[in-house]
């Protein structure tokens, strides 16, 4: 078995679905707290799959985590569980400290105790895979080289600071206790089942509903965009072949300014779902006040994972974003289940 934490969220849910598409793959214990971004509807296709065991719970619950490890004896843990939205971390940093730092600490300690009691062969085979973000590295200028695994940590938001702290804990558990860890730091993910507070799903849904498409500041913030399916395949490679104690940056080799991303989505929607009035969705773009501490540019150098593990993304931004827009057009039931009253209240507060 494999224990996946946060497996009802965006990236974790996609990973669980991708993993269980392969008939020979082992089963998954899926531990998720089901906060606002956790959605069991994402996993609806696994309802009758006996390889998927869902457990509603918190990585900070020591008793629960210890029981699950003892009962299911997983050969690996993949930790997706995290609070991950920068804007929410600015308004309420306490939850980010609790989940991303204290929760990771608890998961590490429970896993270390479990690992210490394994046989020698099981100990050698065990892995703790910590999934993190490129935001821990801080911000780049337009001319700086992309982030590599040796960049110093310079987080600029409560979210990225809490993830940086969790990365340091994972590293320390390897060097202090010999606990078998690997860490991956990914760039901005996009794709199916993405909660519509992040840029790409927000723009798609606002466009279709005739609402403004909010752009922070001048829209020239640059991000490296990684299709979530590519991220999942990279995690599988690192889990299988990654060197213990190492960090691997996972990127899409797709640097795009936010305004370019939004205009691309509008152009695709103009083709696939034209507005009734014949105008372009680009007309709905509106500029709003920039958020505090907004990093100007992120860029991932994913050369190490390609050199050492042979991984490279399969999707370009053009192919990945078209797949993403089409998925949102094809899945109105999933979207309707997500867009609740509390979600609308959050959008009003954030983008008013």
List the helices and strands and how they pair.
Layout: E1 2-5, H1 10-20, E2 28-32, E3 52-56, H2 62-72, E4 76-79, H3 86-91, H4 93-116, H5 120-125, E5 127-133, H6 158-177, E6 181-186, E7 188-190, H7 199-208, E8 213-216, E9 222-227, H8 228-241, E10 247-250, E11 255-257, H9 258-272, E12 285-288, H10 303-309, H11 317-330, H12 332-338, H13 341-351
Helix pairs in contact: 1-8, 2-4, 4-6, 7-9, 9-11
Overall geometric form:
globular
Mean pLDDT: 94
* Main β sheet profile: 7 strands, parallel
Number of strands: 12
Into which percentage range does the β-strand content fall?
15-25%
- Strand and helix order: EHEEHEHHHEHEEHEEHEEHEHHHH
State Rg: 20 Å
Strand arrangement within the widest β-sheet reads 3-2-1-4-5-6-10
Helix coverage percent? 40-55%
Task: Note the gap between the termini.
Answer: 46 Å
| Contiguous uncertain segments of 5+ residues | none
So how many helices? Answer: 13
Q: Give the helix/strand class.
A: alpha/beta
What does this structure look like?
- The model has no long low-confidence stretch (mean pLDDT 94).
- α1 (10-20) links the parallel β1 (2-5) and β2.
- 44% of the residues lie in helices and 16% in strands.
- The protein has 352 residues and is α/β, with parallel strands linked by helices.
- Strands 3-2-1-4-5-6-10 form a seven-stranded parallel beta sheet, with helices on both faces.
- It has 13 helices and twelve strands.
């Amino acid at each position: 078995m494999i224990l996946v934490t946060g497996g009802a969220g965006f990236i974790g849910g996609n990973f669980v679905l991708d993993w269980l598409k392969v008939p020979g793959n082992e089963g998954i214990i899926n531990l998720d707290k089901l906060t606002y971004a956790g959605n069991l509807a994402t996993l609806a296709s696994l309802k009758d799959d006996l390889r998927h065991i869902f457990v509603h719970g918190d990585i900070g619950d020591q008793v629960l985590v210890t029981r699950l490890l003892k009962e299911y004896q997983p050969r690996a843990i993949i930790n997706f569980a995290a609070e991950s939205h920068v804007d929410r971390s600015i308004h309420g940093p306490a939850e980010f400290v609790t989940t991303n730092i204290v929760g990771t600490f608890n998961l590490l300690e429970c896993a270390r105790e479990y690992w210490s009691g394994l046989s020698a062969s099981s100990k050698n085979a065990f892995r703790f895979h910590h999934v993190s973000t490129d935001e821990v590295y801080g911000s780049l200028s337009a001319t700086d080289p992309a982030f590599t695994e040796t960049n110093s940590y310079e987080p600029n938001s409560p979210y990225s600071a809490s993830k940086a702290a969790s990365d340091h804990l994972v590293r320390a558990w390897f060097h202090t206790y010999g606990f078998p860890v690997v860490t991956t730091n990914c760039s901005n993910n996009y794709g199916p089942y993405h909660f519509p507070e992040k840029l790409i799903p927000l723009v798609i849904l606002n466009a279709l509903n005739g609402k403004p498409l909010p752009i922070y500041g001048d829209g020239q913030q640059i991000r490296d965009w990684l299709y979530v399916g590519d991220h999942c395949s990279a995690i599988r490679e690192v889990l299988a072949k990654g060197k213990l104690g190492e960090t691997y940056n996972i990127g899409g080799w797709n640097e795009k300014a936010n305004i370019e991303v939004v205009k691309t989505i509008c152009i695709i929607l103009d083709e696939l779902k034209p507005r009734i009035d014949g105008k372009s969705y680009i007309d709905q773009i509106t500029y709003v006040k920039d958020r505090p501490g907004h990093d100007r540019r992120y860029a991932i150098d994913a050369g190490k994972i390609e050199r050492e593990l042979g991984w490279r993304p399969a999707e370009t931004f053009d192919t990945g974003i078209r797949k993403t827009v089409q998925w949102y057009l094809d899945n109105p039931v999933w979207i309707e289940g997500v867009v609740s009253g509390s979600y609308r209240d959050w959008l009003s507060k954030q983008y008013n």
